[in-house]
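[09:14] KT: can someone run the structure on this one? pasting the chain below
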Amino acid sequence: MRGKLGVSERRACRVLGQHRTTQRHVPRGREDEERLVADMIELARQYGRYGYRRIAALLRDAGWQVNDKRVERLWRREGLKVLYKQPKRGRLWLDDGSCIRLRAEYTNHVWSYDFVHHRTDDGRVFRTLNVLDEHSRECLAIRIKRKLNSIDVIDVPTDLFILRGVPGYIRSDNGPEFIAKAVRDWVAAVGSKTAYIQPGSPWENGYVESFNARLRDELLNGEIFYSLKEAQIVIEQWRKHYNTKRPHSALGYKPPAPEAIIPLLEGPTMN
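[09:31] RB: done, structure tokens below
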């Protein structure tokens, strides 16, 4: 058997000092690679907007001992990809050169509010009021109604205050829902402070804006809601997944509020 250069395989291997069996060896993947690829594809099917790093984190959470590099290789081999890439945004500065960004330093330091608009299948609009802890990135609540007013804006955080305490700051848009005197007075009365963003500068509210983009990209754009009740149930399920399972890149690909499993204590034995 002669190669392209007219030299036999036997002679070429002898000159190079290479055993002939290595020349004819067909590389085989690891024994677990087929199952790993199947699990990877299934996760990619379930979470179509996740890239290979988040999929790798989910695989490790499921018990696989695999690094990002191996998942990336298999990801590319299988032709998997996410078309959308979020553009990077720089730090916000005022015209005088001073930075106005209030950064959360601990849990319950800064909460953010914002609205997202969507429609049910009959064309009717509904709105979601999203509340986010900027430090932990946990979505604290999503209120879903056809119309949301200042009373709803007050009711949702009030319930959260009872469970979690009062945050140091509440960052929000300066739209009509938040400039209402009742809302401002209520925020001051509970001992918190408002942190309104500059008009026309949604990137100042970057954490909740990013969350809104994830909500729309990973759920709303791919779901048909036939009723408001269905939207409330499905979105709440997604919120729980976002908090407890979805890997977050800013948190080292860990979820914001992973579920803790507490083992049952053994009771006293009866003689």
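[09:33] KT: thanks! Residues 88-100, 267-271 have pLDDT under 50 and may be disordered.
[09:34] RB: yep, looked fine to me
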